Task: inverse folding
């Protein structure tokens, strides 16, 4: 079973000034990540503004990333819904050749029970042979997947192999490590707490800021995974200011601003999200310049 350890990055979807997908910028972004030695790419996650993309656009984004990637690093496809039938139906929409796993978020807005979420993810796992990573992000969905439900899902489905835990709650990482088998992959989904999460047993991170500073953040991740927590913490301290700024006006507003500073994408978003204010853009640019000098 493929391992999703180390630094995975949640790619943005670049848009041009007309609001259309900028596939040239997407190609540039993917090549940058791979050249900077990220471990895998996450396509069509929250950071990709997937909720604003049409089905045809989602297919086109995935195909573009696969074509540029050429199997150089694993690809994880974000696939989620608050409608279970719709989620299962999406499995027939995409060409999964070149896709190594599915990242599926908890049903949002409807606030299902633990039993509802168990049945939801069971339906997904039963209809695909691909590895499935659960995605717990209660700040966005309004529900939190209990450790007991994660354990039950893992026991019921051999292809549910891990979880992106984005609550930022470190005791949850500890509980998952204690309750799930050793080969169950716990992945941090919170840039702020990734290093302590690895110290508690996480195998890495699916990161937002990682696509802006993949070399520096990747160095910190590898240090933590090798047991050099002191070195990892030093890097973590250096990037906290950027973390604070990148998420100040929401995601992916801040990360697109930082990527724009690097000349990788334009800082265009689709409503209801808007670009960073001039003040925040300036602060991000200054912080990026400081980190680039390290």
Result:
């Amino acid at each position: 079973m493929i391992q999703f350890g180390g630094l995975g990055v949640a790619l943005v979807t670049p848009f041009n000034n007309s609001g259309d997908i900028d596939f040239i910028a997407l190609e540039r972004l993917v090549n940058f990540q791979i050249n900077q030695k990220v471990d895998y790419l996450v396509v069509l996650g929250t950071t990709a503004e997937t909720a604003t993309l049409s089905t045809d656009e989602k297919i086109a984004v995935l195909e573009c990333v696969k074509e540029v990637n050429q199997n150089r690093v694993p690809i994880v496809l974000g696939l989620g819904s608050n409608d279970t039938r719709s989620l299962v139906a999406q499995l027939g929409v995409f060409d999964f050749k070149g896709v190594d796993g599915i990242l599926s978020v908890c049903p949002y807005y409807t606030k299902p029970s633990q039993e509802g979420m168990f049945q939801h993810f069971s339906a997904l796992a039963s209809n695909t042979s691909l590895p499935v990573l659960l995605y717990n992000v209660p700040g966005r969905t309004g529900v939190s997947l209990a450790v007991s439900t994660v354990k039950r899902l893992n026991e019921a489905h051999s292809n549910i192999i891990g979880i992106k835990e984005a609550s930022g709650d470190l005791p949850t990482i500890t509980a998952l490590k204690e309750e799930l088998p050793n080969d169950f992959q716990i992945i941090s989904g919170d840039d702020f707490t990734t290093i302590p999460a690895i110290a508690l047993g996480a195998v890495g991170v699916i990161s937002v800021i990682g696509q802006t500073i993949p070399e520096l953040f990747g160095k910190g991740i590898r240090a933590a995974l090798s047991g050099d927590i002191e070195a990892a913490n030093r890097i973590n301290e250096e990037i906290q200011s950027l973390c604070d700024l990148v998420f100040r006006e929401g995601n992916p507003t801040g990360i697109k601003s930082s990527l724009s500073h690097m000349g990788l994408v334009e800082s265009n978003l689709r409503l209801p999200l808007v670009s960073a204010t001039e003040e925040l853009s300036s602060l991000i640019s200054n912080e990026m310049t400081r980190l680039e000098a390290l």
About this structure: The radius of gyration is 18 Å.
